Amino acid sequence: xxxxxxxxxxxxxxxxxxxxxxxxxxxxxxxxxxxxxxxxxxxxxxxxxxxxxxxxxxxxxxxxxxxxxxxxxxxxxxxxxxxxxxxxxxxxxxxxxxxxxxxxxxxxxxxxxxxxxxxxxxxxxxxxxxxxxxxxxxxxxxxxxxxxxxxxxxxxxxxxxxxxxxxxxxxxxxxxxxxxxxxxxxxxxxxxxxxxxxxxxxxxxxxxxxxxxxxxxxxxxxxxxxxxxxxxxxxxxx
Length: 238
Hints:
Blueprint: H1 4-17, H2 30-37, H3 41-53, E1 57-60, E2 64-67, E3 73-76, H4 83-90, E4 94-105, H5 108-114, E5 121-131, E6 134-144, H6 153-158, H7 160-167, E7 172-183, H8 186-191, E8 199-209, E9 214-223, E10 227-230
Parallel strand pairs: 3-10
Antiparallel strand pairs: 1-2, 4-5, 5-6, 6-9, 7-8, 8-9
Helix pairs in contact: 1-3, 2-3
């Protein structure tokens, strides 16, 4: 006979998957679950612990259990893919909002990130990515004008990579990536629908043309509950 806490676990996971318990809302309290299932507090806590271990909820001390988003989008770590290509692959309704586009002088940080010279100018764009109506990615792009002489809002709304490859005839080769988890900034809170989340997954991309010229530095800031970062690794024995 199945343990009672497993039955509770199965029923709650099914309700989370079916959106009866929606992401960012709270589960019923321990007392409510005890009454609903006619079980002890220990049984309820076993079920909640298993739910947390398997990524369905986040227990917050003094505030109850927060339901997490279980239908996460796969974000390829090793690949180099545009948001337009990613959205098409996901099959979700998407939109790009250009919050800022300007040509700026490089500072010490950009000189370092882009291997630029003090005389270089850089296109700075801030783009908000909406998927299924929610603002969940903030892209901050810095592109050396030496390689991309002009850039427009329309290009940024569509696909910068598509423009670079199809219109400018340049070939994007590879990227180096750094992935960190950071506290959300005021800028993140301004542009994204963070709801109850206060952490952000930051993917820093250093993107090179096929001739190994570094032309773009990007900070792609993702809401933590919406993505899982996936990779494929093959063991090589020498």
